[in-house]
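Reminder to self: keep the SMILES exactly as supplied, no canonicalising. Ligand is zinc ion.
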Amino acid sequence: MPAANLVQRLIAALEQIEIIDAHEHLSPERVRTSAKVDVFTLFSHYTRRDLMVARMSESDYEVTRNTDLPLDYRWKLFAPYWEHIRWGSYARAALIAAKKFYGADDISERTYADISQKMAKANTPGIYQRVLKDACNIRTALTQAARTDVGQPLLTPVMPLVTEMEVWDQVCRPAVMDWQGNLRPMDPAIAVSSLDDLVAANRSYIKQVKSEGAVGLKMVSNPYRSPSRQAALECFEDLRKGTASSLPAVNPLRDYVVDEMIKCSEEENLVVCVHTGYWGDFRTLDPLHMIPILERHPSVRFDMYHLGYPWVRESIMLGKGFANVWLNFCWTHIISQRFATDALDEVIDLVPTNKVIGFGGDYALAVEKVYGHLVMAREDIASVLAGRIERGQMTEDQALTLARRWLWDNPRELYQLGL
Ligand SMILES: [Zn+2]
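Structure tokens returned for the bound complex:
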């Protein structure tokens, strides 16, 4: 364990470094300010999964989110499960946020009503500025809300690369759905009746979102097969003629269109962001699924998210071996600080310093938790760097230069942000 005073000194220095937050799901601020918020808003996101795993029922969870019901009734349902999840990394971000913004030393029977009252009062225009800019020192946050009208320049949009192609309805009217369920047609002017139409609608969408300020397109590391136009055509015709009512989520039509859109991202000079690992049945999200794509598209810049947890070593090896891969620590510090610090230390050994992105909060409604996550990220970065300093491998100045690369220079260069 590095000396606490060195870690604290580094944290204080890290707080002075301006941040590019490399991944969020924040919608335009008005979505947040028009929502009724209370203490349970702090549990609207990843902690939800922890509560389910702790065996809170889906219906009880939904009750806690129903602001028409009395707060004390909802707290009684919630409290036993909160005790089961409160020591996890997801919960810690909520605890830090509650303390920073609402002055609560804990989230408990004693504080939940007061936190709720203060949250409602603070839920006014300017909350993004107060949290992201003033508290976090974030210049811009790259956000994936499936819309580009997110409120630039504080938020910078990243859009889905491609959408589902399982049923004819999704194929003949390709559209992007945002978190509120609003559909945006990829190109309203194109009626899709052929595979080429489908590719054209997707291309037109990519050009359009780029013109609206998007800097990247997001895909997931599914088990893609080699793209085949012939196989894609057959799938397309099966859906069009109704000989197949649906296709599996990963299918030759999607394989082909994804590959065409990666080529289009290269033409448009957009980063391809890749969710890897952890989510649902994560067997379908192994980061190694990306290797054939990385080899086929050497000039595309791939921003690989989350270190593919639990395939951490595999993900680090992608950063080690592929010039077109960046490793993005978004979400990692709230998955587990232990894993994130171990991985960061190992990444210093293995991966050139210009290829690592240090922080992305990965939150949607609970913007306050971006701060909670960032505090944890700074702790992790400081403790790893302190270890290096104490072993005489780098000076404090060199350590902070490295941190500045992770938090500012590298995301700025990768996404070519005009900051
Ligand atoms: Zn995310």
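Points to follow up:
The first strand starts at residue 19 and ends at 24.
The pocket of zinc ion is lined by residues 23, 25, 362 (CB under 6 Å).
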